[in-house]
Amino acid sequence: MTTQxxxxxxxxxxxxxxxLAGCAAQPGTAGSIDGERITQNExxxxxxxxxxxTGQETEPVVVLNTLLAAEVLPxxxxxxxxxxxxxxxxxxxxxxxxxxxxEVPADGYSDxxxxxxxxxxxxxxxxASPDAQAVFDEFTAAMGDADIVVNPRYGEVNAEGVIEPTxxxxxxGTTEQQ
Length: 178
Fold this sequence. Notes:
Blueprint: H1 3-23, E1 29-33, E2 36-39, H2 40-54, H3 60-69, H4 73-79, H5 86-100, H6 111-127, H7 132-145, E3 148-150, E4 156-157, E5 163-164
Antiparallel strand pairs: 1-2, 1-3, 4-5
Helix pairs in contact: 2-3, 2-6, 3-6, 5-6
């Protein structure tokens, strides 16, 4: 191989390595939207806080979808006058905990669960408003345009910005022996 050809191959390999490294998610990342990272720990905290408050099991992919959407809807809703502070979210969670007979954690809810609540409570407020159509149209467009990356363990993002679980044929399921 000539020196010039070898140099070209080295350059191609180095460039490919840099591109692949730039595409790789940071370790511990569950997903990101427009550069805002949601860590695996944040996802786990929000999921466990949800289960503790409601007593209902949920799939982490559902919580991750909501946390991603929580980066988009609240700022759009705020432009229309629908916004909630962390304190308001915590008060609404406290009301829910009281009505469900659940305990509010002594150290409070995780920041990720507050974000999840901001999305859920603002969504409810907007849905009951005369601005609902405009807000949700803008939200849907923004989710479709967002740069969303998710850890492949949760699935793939569709054109609307929603995670769709993927099945892996190479994974063997377990069957119950009779």
